[in-house]
Amino acid sequence: MIIRFLSCVSALFLAALPASADVVRAADDGFQIHLERTSELPSNLQYARMATLSDWWSPAHTYSGDAENLSLTEVAPGGMWVETWDGGSVLHGEVIAAMHRDGNHMVRFDASLGPLQSIGVEAVLTISINQDGEGSKVVMDYFVTGASFQALSDIAPVVDAVLTEQINRLVDP
Fold first, then answer.
1. Over the stretch 92-110, which tens digit does the pLDDT of each residue have?
2. E strand or H helix at 4, and its extent?
3. Global confidence as pTM
4. Nearest to residue 92, comparing CAs of 72, 66, 120?
5. Fewer CB atoms near the end CB (10 Å): N or C, the chain?
């Protein structure tokens, strides 16, 4: 009964969001999140910051509780977004695409982040950093798909809040 109530509240909340909301689409079998921010850093410096996960990813959203345990082995296909500490290790994602041209950068991860990893969904996170005047524009797009019984539309606002925190930390050094 409580879960049904929360599902209804979530559905009403999502329906009330304006068209420019971070959760672009949400259904029981998946959702899409789109976040955009501007940075005072030029794109090459913002890109370098993005590649150093421990500088901006919130420790509250790690398994170890310490963002210093995060690393990106390589920003090229096959590169791994890992977290390693004395008590264990987690593969958060794998780089599946990386492109750079004229001050524009894009990195795409196969990454079921956090609790999404344990429920067997497919998820792709794309981070784009484009030169914008003296600074840059940073975009995160996250697509998550699974089975309808997973009620992913209920999870979308929580994931949106976590990714919103991360993009804000990324663009505000």
1. 999 999 999 999 999 999 9
2. helix 2-16
3. 0.86
4. 72
5. N
